[in-house]
Specification:
six-stranded mixed beta sheet, about 400 residues, 2 domains, 14 strands, Rossmann fold, globular, 60s Ribosomal Protein L30, Chain: A, alpha/beta
Length: about 400
C-alpha cells in the first residue's frame, strides 16, 4: 500500500551566471540530491528549470539603448501610442524607459479597472459610483480628478504617476488615456506599439484594420540582435525582466535544445526516461490582490514530448457520488481503481473531462513549479517532481 502521491522537491544549484553549462549543472545537482535524499528515479519523473536561469546562462540580455535603437528604426516619426502595457516595475518599466528614450512623445492607453494581469489602476468602488463605466474613455485630466488618489494595496504606488515620472526623466512628453477599446489610441496617433501579452494578436489586428499607419507588438521588438544584443525570435520583449537599471534579461531562446540535452544525460545516468521542461510564471490568480500571475507569454516555452497534451483523469468525488454511490471502503476503492484502468485502456491518449477542468500538462506542472521555487531567495531554480502521473491504480 502506497501512502504518498505526488512529491515535489526544490533543487538547490550553484548560482548560475552567463555562459554556465546549465545542462550539466542541472544533472549534477539532481544526482547529488538523489545521493543525499535517497530517492529512486522513475520513468515519467519531471525535471523543471526556471526560465530565468536559462536566459541568464544563454547571456540573453539587451540594453535600454539597444531597444531604443530598434524602436527608432520601427517608428521613425518619433511619436508612438502604447496600448495596454502591464503595470509592473519589473516587467515593463525598463521597456518604457527605452520607448521614452527613443521617442519625443508617447501616448499611453491603459485598460481599467486593471491591466491584463490584474494590477489595479483605480478604485472599483469609486468607478461604480462615478459617471464612468467600462465603456468610457477617461482622459488624463478626468483620471486625476476622480481616481488619482488610488494606491496599489501591496506596493503603495500609483503606477500612472510612476510611469509619468519615468517617461519625463528621459525628456519625452507623455499623455495618458484610459479605455478598454484598443482602437481609441487612433484618436491620438496612427503609429502604435501594442503591449498586451495574451491578447496581442487580436489587439494588433483590430488596430491595424481600424486604420493605423504603423503597428508593432512587443513580441516584434528585439526579435533580432541589435549591436550584439540578445534577442528572442518568437516573443521579442515579451517575458523579459529587469536585470539592472540599463539592462533586461529576455525570455530564453534555446530551451528546446536544453531540455532534450538534459533528458539524454539523465537517461544515460539513471536508465529512466525523465521528462524535462522550462517554466516561467505559473497560470494562477491571487484572489486577494487579484493579480493573475502569468505575465510571461507562455508558462513553458520548451518541454520534452512526454509533456505534450492534457491530463487523462477521472474526478474521484464525481465517480464516488454518482456511479458508485452505493459502495464504500475497500469495495469502493477497488471499483474506482478498475474505473481508472478502464479509462486508461479506452482513452489511448485522449482527454477525459468528466468532472475535471481541461488544462495543458505544462501549464499545470509549470504552475506547481512556480509556487515551489518562488521568485525570491529560495535558491531552487530546478524543481523535481515524482508521482505526478500516478493514480490509485498504481498502488
Amino acid at each position: 500500500m502506497r501512502y504518498v502521491g505526488t512529491v515535489v522537491r526544490g533543487i538547490r544549484t550553484p548560482i548560475i551566471k552567463e555562459n554556465a553549462d546549465l545542462a550539466n549543472i542541472v544533472v549534477d545537482s539532481l544526482m547529488k540530491t538523489q545521493e543525499s535524499e535517497g530517492f529512486t528515479f522513475h520513468d515519467k519523473d519531471v525535471v523543471a528549470i526556471t526560465e530565468a536561469v536559462v536566459g541568464i546562462s544563454e547571456g540573453n540580455y539587451v540594453t535600454v539603448d539597444q531597444i531604443a535603437k530598434d524602436l527608432k528604426n520601427k517608428f521613425p516619426s518619433g511619436e508612438v501610442g502604447i496600448v495596454f502595457p502591464i503595470l509592473s516595475r519589473n516587467r515593463f518599466s525598463m521597456i518604457l524607459k527605452a520607448i521614452a528614450r527613443a521617442m519625443n512623445k508617447i501616448t499611453i492607453l491603459l485598460s481599467f479597472p486593471s491591466d491584463e494581469v490584474g494590477n489595479g489602476i483605480l478604485d472599483e468602488d469609486v468607478l461604480d459610483n462615478s459617471k464612468y463605466n467600462l465603456s468610457s474613455v477617461i482622459t488624463e485630466k478626468e483620471y486625476k480628478e476622480t481616481f488619482s488618489s488610488w494606491l496599489h494595496p501591496f506596493t503603495g504606488i500609483n503606477m500612472v504617476d510612476f510611469y509619468r515620472e519615468l517617461v519625463k526623466s528621459e525628456n519625452c512628453d507623455v499623455e495618458f488615456v484610459f479605455a478598454n477599446d484598443p482602437k481609441v489610441i487612433l484618436n491620438y496617433t496612427k503609429d502604435v506599439l501594442t503591449c498586451d501579452i495574451h491578447t496581442r494578436l487580436r489587439t494588433k489586428k483590430q488596430i491595424k484594420e481600424a486604420g493605423a499607419n504603423t503597428v508593432y507588438g512587443l513580441f516584434e521588438i528585439m526579435t533580432e540582435s541589435v549591436d550584439g544584443s540578445g534577442y528572442n525570435p518568437t516573443y521579442g520583449l515579451l517575458g523579459s525582466n529587469k536585470s539592472t537599471e540599463e539592462r533586461l534579461k529576455l525570455f530564453p531562446k534555446t530551451g528546446e535544445k536544453l531540455v532534450n540535452e538534459i533528458q539524454a544525460k539523465l537517461k544515460e545516468k539513471t536508465g529512466k526516461t525523465i521528462e524535462v521542461m522550462v517554466y516561467g510564471d505559473g497560470a494562477f490568480k491571487d484572489p486577494v490582490g487579484k493579480i493573475w500571475e502569468l505575465a510571461d507569454p507562455v508558462v513553458s516555452p520548451a518541454f520534452t514530448k512526454g509533456l505534450i497534451g492534457t491530463p487523462n483523469e477521472i474526478k474521484l468525488k464525481y465517480v464516488s457520488d454518482n456511479k458508485f454511490a452505493n459502495l464504500s471502503g475497500d469495495e469502493l476503492k477497488e471499483a474506482i481503481k478498475n474505473e481508472i484502468r478502464q479509462k486508461d485502456s479506452n482513452l489511448k491518449g485522449k482527454m477525459l473531462s468528466q468532472g475535471t477542468t481541461p488544462r495543458r500538462l505544462t501549464d499545470l506542472i509549470g504552475s506547481l513549479c512556480d509556487l515551489t521555487s518562488g521568485s525570491g531567495d529560495k535558491g531552487t531554480p530546478v524543481v523535481f517532481i515524482q508521482g505526478y502521473f500516478d493514480n490509485l491504480s498504481n498502488d
